[in-house]
Amino acid sequence: MKVLIFGCRAFVGPFLALVLVAVPAWAGGGCVQPNCHLAGQAILTDSAGKSHRIEIPKAPYLHDGELRLYPGQSVLLHVADAKDGGLGAISVSRAEAAKPDGSNFLKDLNTEPGMLIVTYFQRGKGGPMELRIAHNLLNAVRYRAATDVLTAKGYLTQSAAICAVPPMKVGPETWPYLIAAVTLKDFRFATDQEKPCV
After folding, report:
1. Fewest Cβ atoms closer than 10 Å to its Cβ: which of 91, 104, 117, 145?
2. pTM of the model
């Protein structure tokens, strides 16, 4: 995925914060809810208490099979019938702000088949970043993740491990450093060798 990066320094209260705008090259256009991020901001706090403002562009959650989330976002996805080990078409059913414990949409797993929930948030002020995934598909689902890590020099995209999530379980993945956004792709049914991430 091509990403355009713009950065500058700004004052946020008594703290100096790096303001980043991570804009996918395909952002903008005729994006409408529930399929798109609303333009806005997320404020992350590092372990030293320094605030960092993340600019969120108006852009689709899903693009070419990749799901991009910024801190404080949760989406309920509908997955069409699976074929040949892969998942069918994935579409956004609903989106909302992440709850402090990341428990968004869990009740929906018992009411409608083909649901995949993805929530990304900071666990408490200065706490770790957490990605939570749950689903009600028949087999474990695996995905690949890329993270946009905040560094002293700005912004660095890193690939993360392949993670598997069993059905009807919450698969948490945490990082002890600040991450401006996560991009998930390559959703498939997991093999027996692919392990859950923690």
Report:
1. 91
2. 0.82
